[in-house]
Design a protein that fits this description.
Blueprint lengths: L8 E4 L21 E5 L2 H5 L5 H20 L4 E4 L10 H11 L4 E5 L4 H10 L2 E3 L8 H8 L7 H12 L3 E2 L2 E2 L30 H13 L16 H14 L1 H4 L19 H6 L4 H13 L5 H25 L18 H4 L5 H13 L4 H15 L3 H11 L5 H12 L16 H7 L14 H12 L1 H4 L6 H9 L2 H16 L6
Parallel strand pairs: 1-2, 1-4, 2-3, 4-5
Antiparallel strand pairs: 6-7
The structure holds ligand DLZ and iron/sulfur cluster.
Iron/sulfur cluster binds next to helix 14, helix 18 and helix 19.
Length: 504
Amino acid sequence: MSHGAQDLVVRVVLGDQLTPDIAALRGGDRARDVVCMAEVAGEAGYVPHHKKKLAFVFSAMRHFAQELKADGWRVDYMRLDAPGNTGSLAGEIARARARHKAARVVATAPGEWRVLDEMRAWADEIRPDARFLCAPEDFARWAKGRKQLRMEHFYREMRRRHDVLMEGDAPAGGRWNFDADNRKPLPPDVVVPRPFEQVPDATTRGVLDMVARRFSGHFGNLEPFAYAVTRPAARAALAQFVDERLPRFGVYQDAMAAGDPWLFHAHIGLYLNAGLLAPMEAIDAATQAWADGHAPLAAVEGFVRQILGWREFVRGVYWHMGPDYTGANALGADRPLPAFYWTGDTDMRCLAHCVADTRAHAYAHHIQRLMVLGNFALLAGLEPRAVQDWFLAVYADAYEWVEAPNVVGMALYADGGVFASKPYAAGGAYINRMSDYCAGCAHSPKSCPFTTLYWDFLDRNRGALGGNPRMGLVYKNWDRRSAQDKDAIRARAAAFLASSVMRA
Ligand code: DLZ
Ligand code: SF4
């Protein structure tokens, strides 16, 4: 086949690639080429995504297609319920290729090994995804020869490389990290601003109807739906965060409050990860707020670290570790996921609230995810694959590149410590300190399942963790307990793990 100037190119844009200068569109000829976007049952169902996540992705896709058309592109958009939809990306691309007699199919690298594998079979050219601030090759170069991958080192290099919050060679304010000023619990009298809300337009309403019909069995509340689904609205959400929440983002970034997952967080992860916002756009908005005297450096640095540091770091880890990473299970955890992760039906109030927030919004903030939902999974020895599938399904911002390292590496220590120097295990005292959950709970933090399981977790995993110098102190504390005490904890843990609470 000739590849002459007249040959039509099908340019594929996936549901999380909603950025006008996405690689696959670069150099395209609007008069000749066709942009192909497809809603497919395969992507909607590889895990049972939260209804709100489905609505967000499909509505954002439809709005993006309109944006491309307004920008002069010919867009071939396949709706999920269109007659003949084959249900897979491969099927839809094959049909589009035939329909348009395309000479070539060009795509942008996806956020998941599974899709990359499939894509290799249907795309003639796969271009690197240039929306991130650290390319996988750059990450590999950085990681090469390092025994352990430390976010803090990576982050400092990214600060220098992108000249963010730098004063010459030194970090702004003389410190790289202002965590000592952050991480306070929420005082009871603090008034939290309302989160950004966008009223659904006709396009979104159409999607909401479709999701209600087609995915009624999936987890989560579909309505009320108020997420941004366009780039201008996502930008407005970012601006509102910077205005109203950023100044106190740092201090309260680890706080938890019953019934309010939003607090002073940004809630822009879903927009960043779908392509509605660019990471540097968010970083610039935050650093400008500091330059303008609107937000303190500790808050701005904490926010920048999440985006320039953590987000880029976990993506680097995901591609660096290869497709087998998601199968890691260093602690041999094999318990099935208890049903309460879906129902919220448990007398452990922290978990009930975190599940309820997740069900309502397809969102919970990082400490709810890590220190309540993830921590419980770690302590109870839940099977990592099941925990990953849950996290991937229930959060509107979750794609495998970001979910897997956060769950496998960070929450579950299932990779044996590729980047976490020790498991993020904590008992009820931590949750009590950082939240108002415990006050109304049937348990008390001293004797609650988290605390019992915490000690039992250490005891059970001594073989894997006992030699870790960062665990020395906690094992010393465990060893100071009497044999009787230890046996009582083991018995309580065994009874809890065998109880109906843990039923899958
Ligand atoms: C998450 C998602 C969903 C629910 N649906 C679609 C879809 O119908 N079509 C599509 O192109 N992409 C969808 N996505 C996003 C993909 O799953 C995502 O591109 C891969 O997981 C790789 O990141
Ligand atoms: Fe959670 Fe324990 Fe507090 Fe109850 S007492 S809310 S189970 S940490």
